[in-house]
Amino acid sequence: MDLLNNRSSVSEFILLGLSSSQEIQFLFFTIFLLVYVAIIVGNLLIMISVIFDNHLHTPMYFFLANLSFFDLCLSSAATPKVIADFLRMSKTISFWGCMAQMFFMHFFGGGEMSLLIAMAIDRYVAICKPLHYKNIMNYRVLIVFLLLSWALAFIHTTSQMAFTVNLPFCGPKVVDSIFCDLPLVIKLACTETYILERLVIVDSGLLSLICFIFLLISYIVMLDTIWHHSSRASSKAVSTLSAHITVVTLFFGPITFIYAFPFYSFSMDKFLSVFYSIITPLLNPIIYTLRNQEMKAAIKRLCSQNIGLWLTH
Predict the structure, then answer these.
(1) Handedness of CA 213, 219, 222, 227 (dihedral sign)
(2) pTM of the entire structure?
(3) Which domains, ranges and CATH numbers included, belong to the chain?
């Protein structure tokens, strides 16, 4: 740590935020606070419903509950600080606070990326190998997929952060965003960062693009399989797949754009960062609950049980 302090004279970074107007910042404070509360309530509701409702003890809902956990953690990595900053004139973050923010953003984002692939594999087996589904997607396989998601998220994050924390920062120290992000912070280093920039492009941008293309192709194959086996069950499968495709597009679209060209400034970058880290974790539970009859029924059962217990006491 002493070595790092000798190489870097920057102890904190300044975040520019979204606006310098106090009125607009207070409006953003209100909106972001309401959105964050909705994220917490929505994702916790899904997690609790899956845990306590026996009807949802299936692989698909196992992955959905873990996706909600990743969404909750991803939004919590930066959003509370963002909300508090809207009430401050000076928006600063300590050096290690910035590093921690980037670590957890990429850790939970990488975990969600891996989990979405696991969910696509689950749907592929359910649709294309229905007779063998229970044997293939057993409890041990689910745990392996979950552990792989955590492991890949850790590798994805540490492979970039291990180099970033050792960069020398001697000024400037202004980050043109509402939170710290790798490309923006790396550009502030007082050294040549060409190799690290290429690593970020491959590890975040190219990887996201490849995963996105892989998922879209897999869902096209599944939709084609459903198309040739028309039935009432197929309409339910199409509804489920459409929800998955929507979530995948909302998640991978912004991060692919941000990290495919991370070291070039675009006017949409701030909006996409907000969308990826705050809006997507809100939309995911909405999409899965509104398009899923079983989930809506489980939430109703959970609410009615709790209301009944409250009335009896």
Answers:
(1) negative
(2) 0.89
(3) 2-312 (1.20.1070.10)
